[in-house]
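Project outcomes to date are best conveyed with an example. Our students and postdoctoral researchers have been running inverse folding experiments weekly, and each run begins with a structure described purely in tokens. The record below, which covers 481 residues, was selected by the lab manager from last quarter's runs and is presented without edits.
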């Protein structure tokens, strides 16, 4: 029996290794849409193969010992006399088979709940309004080449690029910012607010963006008060800043924010005047609350240049035209990382997408294991109780009664597994709440759907061998030993 168990485990290890080779080659070709190239080192080397071999041997031994020992304790005399009444899982409330199958059901339900939560979260992400336009927006990075001295950076170059690119057919509006929404270069800056005394230990650093003229118009971010950054906000003009609603609520609740002053260099100034209040927009994360945000003039201080173009057609169709116009204005600059705003927003939910795919794959594998486990248990019970089934039919039981008896035995294991899996899934969904997007983790529908799917698989896995048991001929069943 141990030899048979080891052979089964070895065959599984070989098949699993072959599938792993195919899976790792597929994953290695995946390139996430990130500004930096990420490689996946998923090669199968001797360490992986040794681990697989050890796992297969241990699995074959550990899970083959219990049935082998039980078989070795068979009473020989009773078996020779034909008194070998089989003891099945039906004759005991708990058994090793039952515990293992119930554990499979619990783990499978847990994975299904997680997969459904992430899939619903991704669907909800598509319906969230981040507070700015995402359709028809092209983004690209424009910056001096590495061999160009930083001292040669012209503060007016982004403005000249804006004017030149704005003349391309299909371009409706152009501007730039030091960072794009949901980028990896979001920065914070400490400030002092005129007339505001921060509390001991209060965080006075906030996220900011250095933007060019018409930036709010390009991204279609409404201004609740005042104006945005314009072409008059240049070096030599009074320093200005635009803040969002969250910033105004924190420092001037119930008061007008226009005309207020902040400083990025301490309480002694120089001071920047608040000339506008923009609507709150999610630039950092779709899952986090919008915090205070500041927007400084790109014509008054230099930083990175992420050009933003609002177009009337396919944004990516302008790639070559954009590159040509930029290099014509600034031959020493380079243009790279051209993408749409929809792709940019999509990058922000890559962790959720990866988690959804991984949990979905594991959930499907777990469902398959549950189906195989339940099928095996019920099929074994049918084979062990063939004579009992014949007696029941002889006493008047119909096919429906036989099927119900066998199916109930399989569903009992699924029920005990669900008793553990449903509370565990609920607890895990609470732990994942900060990672999900627009998803009520206490949503009963998600857990009911997972339980319903698992219940359907469990019923089908138990029904197939039960239906076969109901078709056994009466005389064949009564003569079975």
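After processing, the design step wrote out the following sequence:
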């Amino acid at each position: 029996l141990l030899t048979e168990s080891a052979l089964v485990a070895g065959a599984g290890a070989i098949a699993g290794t072959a599938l792993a080779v195919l899976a790792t080659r597929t994953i290695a070709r995946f390139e996430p849409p990130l500004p930096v190239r990420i490689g996946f080192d998923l090669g199968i080397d001797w360490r992986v193969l040794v681990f697989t071999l050890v796992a297969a041997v241990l699995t074959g031994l550990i899970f083959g010992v219990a049935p082998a020992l039980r078989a070795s304790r068979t009473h020989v005399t009773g078996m020779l006399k034909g008194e070998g009444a089989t003891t099945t899982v039906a004759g005991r409330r708990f058994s090793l088979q039952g515990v293992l199958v119930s554990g499979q059901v619990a783990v499978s339900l847990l994975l299904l709940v997680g997969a459904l939560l992430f899939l619903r979260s991704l669907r909800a992400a598509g319906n969230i309004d981040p507070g700015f336009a995402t359709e028809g927006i092209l983004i690209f990075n424009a910056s001096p080449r590495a061999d160009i001295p930083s001292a040669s950076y012209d503060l007016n170059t982004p403005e000249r690029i804006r004017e030149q690119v704005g003349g391309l057919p299909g371009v409706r509006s152009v501007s730039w910012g030091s960072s794009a929404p949901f980028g990896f270069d979001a920065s914070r800056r400490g400030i002092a607010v005129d007339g505001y005394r921060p509390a001991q230990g209060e965080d006075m650093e906030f996220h900011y963006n250095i933007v060019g003229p018409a930036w709010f118009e390009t991204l279609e971010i409404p201004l609740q008060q005042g104006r945005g950054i314009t072409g008059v906000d240049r070096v030599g003009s009074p320093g200005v800043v635009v803040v969002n609603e969250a910033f105004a609520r924190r420092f001037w609740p119930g008061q007008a924010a226009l005309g207020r002053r902040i400083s990025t260099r301490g309480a002694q100034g120089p001071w920047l005047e608040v000339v506008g209040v923009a609507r709150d927009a999610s630039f950092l994360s779709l899952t986090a609350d919008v915090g205070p945000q500041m927007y400084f003039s790109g014509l008054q201080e230099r930083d990175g240049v992420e050009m933003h173009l609002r177009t009337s057609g396919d944004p990516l169709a302008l790639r070559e035209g954009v590159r040509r116009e930029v290099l014509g204005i600034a031959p020493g600059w380079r243009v790279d990382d051209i993408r749409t705003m929809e792709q940019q927003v999509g990058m922000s939910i890559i962790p959720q997408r990866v988690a959804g795919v991984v949990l979905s794959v594991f959930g499907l594998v777990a469902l398959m294991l549950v189906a195989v486990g339940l099928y095996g248990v019920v099929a074994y019970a049918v084979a062990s109780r063939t004579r009992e089934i014949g007696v029941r039919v002889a006493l008047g039981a119909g096919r429906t009664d036989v099927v119900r008896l066998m199916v109930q035995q399989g569903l009992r294991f699924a029920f005990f597994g669900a008793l553990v899996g449903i509370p565990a899934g609920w607890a895990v969904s609470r732990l994942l709440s900060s990672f999900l997007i627009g998803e009520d983790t206490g949503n009963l529908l998600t857990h009911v759907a997972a339980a319903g799917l698992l219940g359907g698989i469990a019923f089908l896995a138990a029904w197939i061998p039960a239906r076969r048991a109901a078709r056994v001929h009466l005389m064949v069943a009564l003569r079975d030993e």
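The chain has 14 helices and twelve strands. The first strand starts at residue 137 and ends at 144. The training component of this project remains on track.
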